[in-house]
Amino acid sequence: MSQDIHVTSACIGKVQSNLNEKLIPALKDLKKDVGSTGVTFPGFGTQGLIFGGKYSDVQHNVQGAVQDAIKTVEAWIEALETVKRNWIQAENNSTVVYR
User: Fold this and answer.
1) Backbone angles phi, psi at 2, to 5 degrees
2) pLDDT in tens, 33-49
3) Which region holds residue 96: left if phi is over 0, alpha if psi is between -120 and 50, else beta?
4) Which helix (H) or strand (E) covers residue 86, if one does?
5) pLDDT band at residue 63 using 50, 70 and 90 as cut-offs
6) Closest to 73 measured CA to CA, from 21, 11, 8, 7
7) I need a labelling partner for 63 at 20 to 30 A (CA). Which of 34, 46, 71, 96 fits?
């Protein structure tokens, strides 16, 4: 059996909204939270000097990856705007006009 799946410009706009209003703020919160998870001495005990520096490096790497994800999602939102405009044009062009 096949499903009837219909994409609309409103649906594309809703995806944009969800990315902008939900995903980006969640990613920004994650980036902030990663920065607040520092482990101070003596958190790693006698191995603190070794693990502390490595842990800090991992935090920095994660924050960079999250920032890259934010930029990617922002690019998706922008690309979806083009998709939506094209979809609206296609919807308008496929409308039957009676004269």
Assistant:
1) -105, 155
2) 988 877 666 666 666 66
3) beta
4) helix 48-93
5) very high
6) 21
7) 46
The letter for the amino acid at 64 is: G
DSSP 8-state secondary structure symbol assigned to residue 2: -
Q: Where are the domains of the chain?
A: 9-93
| Of 21, 28, 32, the residue nearest 77 (C-alpha) | 21
CB atoms inside a 10 Å sphere around CB 35:
12
pTM of the full structure: 0.77
User: Residue 68 has which token pair?
Assistant: 């890259």
User: Do the beta carbons of residue 57 and residue 8 sit within 8 Å?
Assistant: no
DSSP annotation of 45 reads G
Side-chain half-sphere of 36: how many Cα atoms within 13 Å? 6
Q: Which two tokens stand for residue 44?
A: 């790693």
Quick: pLDDT tens for 67-86: 999 999 999 999 999 999 99
